[in-house]
Amino acid sequence: MSDSIRQYVGTNKKISVERSLPSNPRLNGFLVDASESLGVMHCFHDFMPDGFSVFRIADVTEVRSGKYERHWERMLKGEGLLSALAKPPSLDLTTMRSAIDSIESQYDGIIIECEDAEIESEDFYIGSVLSTNEEKVTIQHFDGLGNWDGEPSTLIMSDISLVQFDTPYINTFWKYLAEPSPLKGKT
Hints:
single chain, alpha+beta, ten-stranded antiparallel beta sheet, 4 helices, 19% helix, SH3 type barrels
């Protein structure tokens, strides 16, 4: 699957990526970079730019880029919604850790998802990365009211299936947090 998806890197061709994870099986957008193990897409939800998603190539079951995607390309271009493709983020996609470290160094907020392949369930964390190592990432996340949790969460790196950044969801929440991450820089 790696070669069939990597052929779209930087082509500005819209693709639809089917993943084996039931909670969020499809990503739609433009593949801006990929390694053997990870891809990063500028995603769209309907006609709205929805930031960037880093996903595992191993979870991809199908890639589609046909007449429907060409039609959507024309519409998105006609609406002036493809400006993020002019200068996509530069991420180290060697490992999930290096991708998260790259995101954390360039963007304030991050969403990390640990999706389950068997059920429509996911662990969803939105917040600020405090630390990473090869096996784990520690994140201080906030709740739906914009309040930081008192204790950070430690996630197993191999459980992480999707990482989102520079999305309208994150960027809007970030503007309305009562305070910056109280633990950032203290761990």
